[in-house]
Design a protein that fits this description.
The chain has 225 residues and is mainly alpha-helical. It has eleven helices and three strands. The protein folds into two domains: 78 residues, Potassium Channel Kv1.1, Chain A (2-Layer Sandwich); 126 residues, no CATH class. The protein is 53% helix and 6% strand. It is elongated, with a radius of gyration of 21 Å. Strands 2-1-3 form a three-stranded mixed sheet. Helix 5 runs antiparallel to helix 6, helix 6 packs across helix 9 and helix 8 crosses helix 10. 30% of the residues are buried. It starts with 15 loop residues before the first strand and ends with a helix.
């Protein structure tokens, strides 16, 4: 098992072993501890793991830990999406949620900010690809911005973003609500689906609710004028 170890960190031998799934990953304490409160505490405590320099992480999947280590070792941040997948598909949302949860568990704040920015950038791309059509939605092949099924996923990941301590810019939020309101007719519209998904969130973040509400209010005011 290897990750994208940058040249800056290759002059010293690894002195810690992480056990993730059935893999042993050799890493450096001086890379992990300054950036992760979890590793700092684990390696400085009087425990068996600290003595053996071997830390088990059963809470984190191998592919997610690889993403975390890539960031810790300062490899260029690349898309966490699987090849051919889209940012707000079921698979992508599940993976990005796991990455954010891993950052929270390991207490790596800088990584959380970077991935939140990635999600915001993906929101800004909504509606910019003129080749995307979903003819099964209306039967006419009408140009739309993203599939209605993604609206619940977007609500879910935005709540995770805010819950991690980050926020989405006003510009990105305004773009999102404008696109959600593009076909605001009936219970199957994107806006209706988004509202229903927000209502189902089990642990809603107050700041997320505030920002999405303000963006919707601003959109309605522009329409009135």
């Amino acid at each position: 098992m290897s990750f994208k170890e940058t040249p800056f960190y290759t002059f010293a031998s690894p002195d810690i072993t992480l056990v993730v799934g059935d893999q042993n990953i050799a890493v450096h304490e001086y890379v992990l501890s300054p950036q992760s409160e979890f590793f700092k505490a684990a390696l400085r405590s009087e425990t068996k793991e600290a003595y053996q320099r071997r830390i088990k992480l059963p809470e984190i999947k191998l592919n997610v830990m690889t993403e975390v280590l890539n960031w810790l070792y300062r490899a260029p941040l690349t898309s966490p999406l699987d090849a051919g997948d889209t940012a707000f598909s079921n698979n992508s949302i599940a993976k990005m949620k796991e990455i954010l949860h891993a950052h929270d568990f390991l207490q790596i704040k800088g990584a959380t900010r970077d991935y939140c920015k990635f999600i915001e950038d993906e929101l800004q791309k909504l509606g910019t690809d003129p080749t995307i059509r979903h003819p099964n939605e209306d039967g006419f092949g009408t140009l739309i911005t993203f599939h209605r099924n993604y609206t619940g996923n977007i609500a879910e990941i935005l709540n995770e973003v805010y819950g991690s301590g980050c926020a989405i810019s006003k510009e990105a939020m305004a773009r999102l609500v404008a696109i959600l309101a593009y076909d605001n007719t009936g219970p199957e519209s994107r806006l209706s689906r988004f509202a229903a998904a927000v209502e189902k969130i089990s642990d809603p973040d107050g700041e997320f609710f505030r920002d999405i509400s303000l963006a919707l209010m601003a959109l309605n005011l522009r329409k009135v004028r």
